[in-house]
Amino acid sequence: MGSTELLRLNRGVRNWQEHGHHGPRFARGRLPPWRHDGRGTGAQHPDPRGEAGHSLAEIAQLLDVEACRATSSRRQVAKTRTPARGGRSGTDAFGQRQRGGHILPSARGYDVRPTPLPAGQRRATGETDLGGRGTEMSTGGRIVIIGAGATGRGQLGQVAYSAGWSVTYIERDRGLVDALRRSGRFTVGLAGETVVNVEVSDFHVFHTLEKGASQAIEDADILATAVLPTNLQSTVPTIAEGLKLRQSSAVGKPLNVIACENMERSSSTLKRYLKEGAPGLDWEWVKQHVGFPDAMVARAIPVPTEDPLYLLAEASQEWSVDLKELAEPMPRLEGMTLSANQAATLERKLYIKNTGHFAIGILGFRKGFALIDQAARDPEVSALADEATRESAWAVATKHRLDRDWIEGYRATFLEEVKSPFLPDDVSRVIREPARKLAREERLVGPAMLAHELRGEHRALAKLIALALTLDNPEDAQCRELRARLAATGAARTIAAVCGVPEVHPLSAEIREQMLPA
Questions:
Q1: How far is residue 507 CA from its own chain's centroid?
Q2: Ramachandran sector of residue 94 (left: φ over 0; alpha: ψ -120 to 50; beta: rest)
């Protein structure tokens, strides 16, 4: 059975589960957009037997619907509008491609999960042996998010709010705190084939220095950060104060501190910062009551330039948390995946999506493009980004024994979606802080070293590392520092210091061969 027929079956089941015999009317001849508020707007609905005429039992067996029951939103307000420019080809109504996997209903739209593999073989996403847990129905909980920026609101807050969780923000930007308090709401426009506006309200927001910040942490189930890796250490005083208050109040339930940053071992790094910056904490108590599971987040969200209360975001999203480091019990949050192989999940995302994004940014900047989607549609940029992500995808799949067809679908989907004009993302944002992004385990050097160790191709990755090292962007402090270091110490020493690649390593020589003069 093909993915198109499977999608049709799934749509029938989803409407039967959520709306019984009173499904919502199709808007403009399209399928119901993304997620509904459960009230319905009419009497039309697809046949629950599916357009192919299969019985519900057959559909349930095909789609595993018992393991991933759909739930209707109790608070979300969704409105659709047609984007100003043409839609994506080859996508469903939510801008998410259907490739080689089961299409499962969820509150986020359709999750594409890999087809089950034979016993002993790992899934392409690295989510192994979960017994159907994956993304589960929410039971409600409290999440505190440090950082009310693009990721904090456009992904974490929107997903948690839509799942029925209580949301509180801690933010250091006084102007943003005041704006959120005055409005009491913000909107996330989820851009797919149409744009679905999701209004988020009923949240609390505190400035970092207000007493309410630590009090919010006292009663939370999840404390998340979304502040960028360079600002992660600055969250330590706020977190430490909240943990002390939890201990003094004898809060019995566990807390999971989840750093949702674009970096490896995010929460583990935050835990180290906390140990160094808050030595007065009772670490025996912390060990018993607080988890620091590493996380991976993925959703393209350009920083709003006009209205700070409206964020345009990619319709699809990934939020994966390390199951093995979770402090249990924790209420399940629909939209968060618990992964038994977080390393594979993170590397798959970092070495394909982040690698591709940075590659397109570097090449686009050199060719004078202002926006990522414009650069991604350039033939030369597209060709080198395709080659580099092909090399990194091979390395990830080989290391973690992942299904190569699924990985190729994931890679190809990203390269197609990044061309979408509905999410105008600045090239300057994507290439900022190049020294951090050139670190040993980051998006270019990491997959290049891995491919070298596994005896795979990595020439395109080496070329991109060379181009990133010699970027001439006077507005970026790290760019200026890199060029100064190259001039003062030479390429070999700069590569060793910045990229963690020894001067005698073959990759260092390959990078130097392709470097342009600084």
A1: 30
A2: alpha
Q: Which pair of tokens denotes residue 374?
A: 């414009």
Tell me which DSSP letter residue 152 carries. Answer: I
Contacts of 81 (CB under 8 A, 6+ apart): 194, 195, 197
User: For residue 199, what are the β-bridge partners?
Assistant: 77, 187
Specify whether 61 is located in the same domain as 24: yes
For residues 133 and 135, what is the distance between their CA atoms, to the nearest angstrom? 6
Domain assignment of residue 355, yes or no: yes
Is-cis flag, bond preceding 329, omega within 30?
A: yes
> Are 331 and 221 contacting, i.e. CB atoms less than 8 angstroms apart?
yes
SS3 labels along 53-118: CCCHHHHHHHHCHHHHCCCCCCCCEEEEECCCCCCCCCCCCCCCCCCCEEEEEECCEEEEEECCCC
Do 309 and 355 lie in one domain? The reply is no
Cβ(179)–Cβ(304) under 8 Å? no
Residues 6+ apart with CB under 8 A from 235: 146, 225, 227, 270, 273
Q: 102 — phi, psi (to 5°)?
A: -70, 145
How far, in Å, CA of 451 to CA of 465, rounded?
Answer: 14
Q: pLDDT 10s per residue in the chain (518 long)?
A: 443 343 333 333 333 333 333 333 222 222 222 222 232 333 333 333 233 333 333 333 333 322 332 323 333 333 433 333 333 223 222 223 222 222 222 222 223 233 333 333 333 333 432 322 333 334 589 999 999 999 999 999 999 999 999 999 999 999 999 999 999 999 999 987 788 999 999 999 999 999 999 999 999 999 999 999 999 999 999 999 999 999 999 998 999 999 999 888 999 999 999 999 998 999 999 999 999 999 999 998 988 888 999 999 988 899 999 999 999 999 999 999 999 999 899 899 999 999 999 999 999 999 999 999 999 999 999 999 999 999 999 999 999 999 999 999 999 999 998 998 888 889 999 999 999 999 999 999 999 999 999 999 999 999 999 999 999 999 999 999 999 999 999 999 999 999 999 999 999 999 999 986 64
- Per the domain annotation, does 134 fall within a domain? no
Helices marked H in 278-378: 283-289, 342-349, 355-366, 372-376
| Complete edge-to-edge strand list for the sheet that includes strand 318-322 | 295-298, 318-322, 337-339
Shared domain check, 303 and 354: no
Q: Is 83 left (phi over 0), alpha (psi -120 to 50) or beta?
A: beta
**Residue 369 β-bridge partners:** none
The answer to whether the beta carbons of residues 515 and 508 sit under 8 Å apart is no
The total domain count for the chain is 3
Q: Which two tokens stand for residue 317?
A: 């999203």
- In this structure, are 452 and 478 located in the same domain? yes
